[in-house]
Amino acid sequence: MTKKIAIIGSGNIGISLAKGLVKADYTTAAQITLTRRSLDHLKPFEAAGFNISNDNKATVAAADVVILAVLPQQLNTVLDEISSAINPAKHLVISVISGVSCAAVKEKLGNDVEVIRAMPNTAIAIGQSMTCIASDNASAENIADVTKMFETVGSVVKINEDLMTSATALCACGIAFFLRAIRAASQGGVEIGFHADEALKMAVQTAKGAADLLLLHGTHPESEIDKVTSPKGCTIAGLNEMEHNGFSSSLIKGIKLSALKAGNLYTKES
Predict the structure, then answer these.
(1) Residues annotated within a binding site for NADPH
(2) Which of 68, 145, 215, 267 qualifies as a cystine partner to 95, CB 3.0-4.6 A?
(3) What range(s) does the Pyrroline-5-carboxylate reductase catalytic N-terminal domain occupy (predicted)?
(4) Which residues are annotated as a binding site?
């Protein structure tokens, strides 16, 4: 990989991606420039071999791939700043900014620019993100490149852009939903006799094991549940009690409401 990459707005997502790309040998630190208004925050990354800058326009002009990772409220200012440096024949633009459509980026940078939208979640920090990507004009080659790029920090699914709000609810908000389920399980553990730290450790590892069973076996949750439930057993009794109290339906309703809320936020931001 010899393309020069500019990460505009090097916060948590931008930094995590930069580290992932280097760790996976997708590229070298020397090929990546990190930008931020205050360079003090980026000094440790300069020492690690990354280029750093507070000049977005010059950084974009020297790059082949431009990753927009600023806050939504900063985006229009940044797009105005870099628009004259964008060359549609050279640049691929990737936006990881929540709620901003490909069309909104092209409105500022020009309709000929290839734009790919990517939505990672907070597990990008440990290389375990579920990232959804979408585009309305990118080539198959660029889609493949961006897929490979985000696979350095987790798993990737390509979706239609109109499903990005739904992906926000399932993957981005979903982190919080599963964390709350783990928290509840640990509280149940305390109630049945374990110390809080023990209960949390047990709940976390059990949840991780459950997820890995599905990932490694490629099975459906119900087939794994069947292996744990025996006639008149304690597992089915617990499951049925949870279902009587709305366990599955409340999770489904929560995801639907989060998707609705995300859709309204998108409308306000665009």
Answers:
(1) 56
(2) 68
(3) 4-98
(4) 56, 69-72
* Superfamily of domain 167-269 in the CATH hierarchy: ProC C-terminal domain-like (1.10.3730.10)
Whole-number Å distance between alpha carbons of 214 and 181: 18
With the C-alpha atoms ordered 102, 161, 128, 173, is the resulting torsion angle positive or negative?
A: positive
Kindly give the confidence (pLDDT) of every residue in the chain, 270 residues in length, as a single tens digit, with 9 standing for 90 and above: 579 999 999 889 999 999 999 999 999 999 999 999 889 989 999 999 999 999 999 999 999 999 999 998 899 999 999 999 999 999 999 999 988 999 999 999 999 999 999 999 999 999 999 999 999 999 999 999 999 999 999 999 999 999 999 999 999 999 999 999 999 999 999 999 999 999 999 999 999 999 999 999 999 999 999 999 999 999 999 999 999 999 999 999 999 999 998 877 645 444
Distance in angstroms (rounded) separating the CA atoms of residues 19 and 4: 15
Find out if CATH 3.40.50.720 is the number for domain 5-159.
yes
Q: Is the Cβ–Cβ distance between 77 and 60 less than 8 Å?
A: no
Residue list for the binding site for NADP(+):
69-72
240 token code pair: 């049925």
* Nearest one of 86, 88, 92 to 147, comparing CA atoms: 92
**Separation of alpha carbons 234 and 74, rounded Å:** 53
